[in-house]
């Protein structure tokens, strides 16, 4: 059992929890993730480790309540425990000194890359961050990203904060203006990551996408997280979750990610009915 010692609300249906997990905290590195199960009847879901405190023996998780499991996780209170939690899983991102690193994130993507971005900064890189969301209420970790960035640009679809438009438009503009970017790290919606890779490829800018596909066991046994990278089948849980964005088959990834959406919606409806006493 892994006890929640701190819980915060970061935005609309976006929660941050600090969880006791000393063995994971001792070994986890930026880019790795955990797989958890909230209760005995729950499914297994992956969550990127957003940070750790080795002295306290805790890890930080950030998630958006979009399905049954994340809703249940969001209902847990400080002092309550998560039934199962395993990790660290996946490969840590390669942290090197490239020069100027551009972080392009959409939605809750900041939760995936904050720890990695911080590690790049500590390695001596200059950090330019482009953050985007549908509206200002869905922007998370803005202050934290600003603290480690040499430049921070914000976009919102509705113009409620920062530049009205998309992160990819800003990326395309700064590259077009001659800004030298040596490395791009992107996380968030699949269509956004695909567009980022299309923008950087003609300029031969090393680009890494942090993927979050359907995942079950996290050990490469189930095959649920398979992705096509450079024409070869890979498993995001053991071969990733970070890959060369120019090699990712984003169209296939998008189809696989949406495959079970009708089932996820049905499960969420059932949960809501039970909550109000209708089922």
Any overview of this molecule?
The chain is α/β, with parallel strands linked by helices. The chain has two domains: 2-89, Beta Barrel (Elongation Factor Tu (Ef-tu), domain 3), CATH 2.40.30; 100-257, Nucleotide-binding domain of ferredoxin-NADP reductase (FNR) module (Rossmann fold). Helix content is 30%, strand content 32%. It has helices at 22-27, 68-75, 109-122, 142-148, 167-176, 190-200, 236-239, 250-257, 261-275, and strands at residues 2-11, 14-20, 33-37, 45-53, 58-64, 81-82, 84-89, 100-106, 126-133, 151-156, 163-164, 183-187, 206-210, 226-229, 232-235, 242-244. The protein has a seven-stranded antiparallel beta sheet with strand order 6-1-2-5-4-3-7. Strand 4 (45-53) and strand 5 (58-64) form a beta hairpin. Helix 5 (167-176) packs parallel to helix 6. The chain is globular. 42% of the residues are buried. The mean pLDDT is 90.
Please identify which CATH superfamily of the largest domain we are dealing with: Nucleotide-binding domain of ferredoxin-NADP reductase (FNR) module
Largest sheet: 7 strands, antiparallel
Query: How are the strands ordered across the major sheet?
Result: 6-1-2-5-4-3-7
Number of domains: 2
CATH topology annotation of the largest domain? Rossmann fold
Strand content: 25-35%
- Highest CATH level, the class of the largest domain: Alpha Beta
Low-pLDDT regions: none
Helix content: 25-40%
Strand segment tally = 16
Overall outline: globular
Q: What is the helix tally?
A: 9
The overall pLDDT, averaged over residues, is 90
Give the helix/strand class.
alpha/beta
Distance between the termini: 28 Å
CATH architecture of the largest domain: 3-Layer(aba) Sandwich
């Amino acid at each position: 059992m892994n006890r929640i010692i701190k819980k915060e609300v970061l935005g609309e249906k976006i929660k941050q929890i600090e969880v006791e997990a000393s063995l994971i905290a001792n070994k986890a590195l930026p880019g790795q993730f955990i797989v958890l199960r909230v209760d005995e009847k729950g499914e297994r879901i992956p969550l990127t480790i957003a940070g750790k405190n080795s002295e306290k023996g805790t890890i930080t998780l950030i998630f958006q309540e979009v399905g049954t499991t994340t809703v249940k996780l969001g209902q847990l209170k400080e002092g309550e425990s998560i039934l199962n939690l395993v990790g660290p899983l996946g490969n840590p991102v390669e942290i090197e000194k490239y020069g100027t690193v551009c972080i392009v994130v959409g939605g809750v993507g900041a939760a995936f890359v904050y720890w990695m971005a911080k590690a790049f900064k500590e390695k001596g890189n200059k950090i330019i961050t482009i953050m985007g969301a549908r509206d200002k209420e869905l922007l998370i970790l803005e202050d934290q990203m600003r603290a480690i960035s040499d430049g921070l640009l914000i976009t919102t679809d509705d113009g409620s904060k920062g530049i009205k438009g998309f992160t990819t438009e800003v990326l395309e503009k700064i590259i077009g203006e001659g800004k030298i970017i040596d490395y791009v790290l992107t996380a968030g919606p699949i269509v956004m990551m695909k567009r980022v890779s299309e923008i950087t490829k003609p300029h031969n800018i090393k680009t890494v996408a942090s993927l979050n596909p359907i995942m079950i066991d996290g050990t490469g046994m189930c095959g649920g997280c398979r992705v096509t990278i450079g024409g070869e089948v890979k498993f995001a849980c053991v071969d990733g979750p970070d890959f060369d964005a120019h090699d990712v088959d984003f169209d296939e990834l998008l189809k696989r990610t949406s495959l079970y959406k009708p089932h996820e919606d049905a499960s969420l409806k059932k949960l809501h009915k039970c909550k109000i006493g209708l089922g």
